[in-house]
Amino acid sequence: MGRSGRGLHLPSLAKVRAEAPELLAPAPVAAFDPFRTPSGDPGVAPVDSPEDAARRYAPARTVVHLCTPPAVRATMLDRLAALGYRKILVEKPLAVDLAGLAAVARVRRRWGLDVTVATHWLDSALTRRLQDAVSGGEYGPLRRIRVVQNKPRFTRSTSHGTGGDDHPTVFDVEVPHALAVVLSLAGGARISGASWSDLVVGRTRLPRLGRARLRLDHHGGVRTEIDSDLTSPVRERRVTLEFDRAVLVGHYPCSEADHTSQLRISGPGRAPSRAVIVDDALPAFLRNVYDRYARPAPEPHRTLPVQIDVVRLLSEAKDRCAAAERGPACRPRRARAGTARREGARDADAVR
Description:
Number of strands: 15
Largest sheet: 8 strands, mixed
Radius of gyration: 20 Å
Mean pLDDT: 89
Helix content: 25-40%
């Protein structure tokens, strides 16, 4: 289960159950957490292991929420698949590097898993409005995207030492959400620049967990900048879309305390407008996932190819940053990445 399972998935599942009780079995949610007994969580039935859960609940009729760190994801997927589980929802990112992506791809192909990645920003009401603005053409062609993700993360990062397997770099925390959104808006891209910095608090320095910057050139001509700062004094999730005839500025919810987004539209010859949008994205995402899994023969999740591209781009960004740290004579290691990239490509082709 872990922190995201307890703090995000369980409350959101409770909302789905209240809105669409026919989608979820009436039994409590089985939960396994090797570091904490989840006995105090309402609506939860603690189990001793995934094997224990498989004995109590039929794997063929079960959706697994896999909230482990991505570094151990392929191992856990293989273990769950051997028990008969096929419908598995995993926390973002799908993997932290191309080798991990290749390992997940092998497990997925071997067992025929239906894997969904929990990047619920794609199911956000704000994201849907932005997609409509791009596809509708009312404001002309999209030219530029800028995403700002400010999220002070000193306490949680320092409690994990150097980040551990949870989030080894700043690129693995908030950036996967933003990158999935911009790829859904502007299509495939290549990296034109990347950088990261350390997180420093007092005498503690955590390498590569401070601030990330990423520049993308999309194949369709759009340019994107993503700036994710885990050392910021304020919280903000802002996306700006620049069209020929308008600028759209959206603000995503920053915490569980409030589930509203905002969208401001301005441009020459039009009065500025502002909309406040009810936007509880994770329950909406989970309801769509369970609707799809309830079908007799569900199609693969539409965003899995995007999630594969997210891992590839982030892996390249981290390679670039690591090479810059080693010096101008160093380059990212291409041989290993090439093998993993081919594995990931085969997985994406299988999805399509």
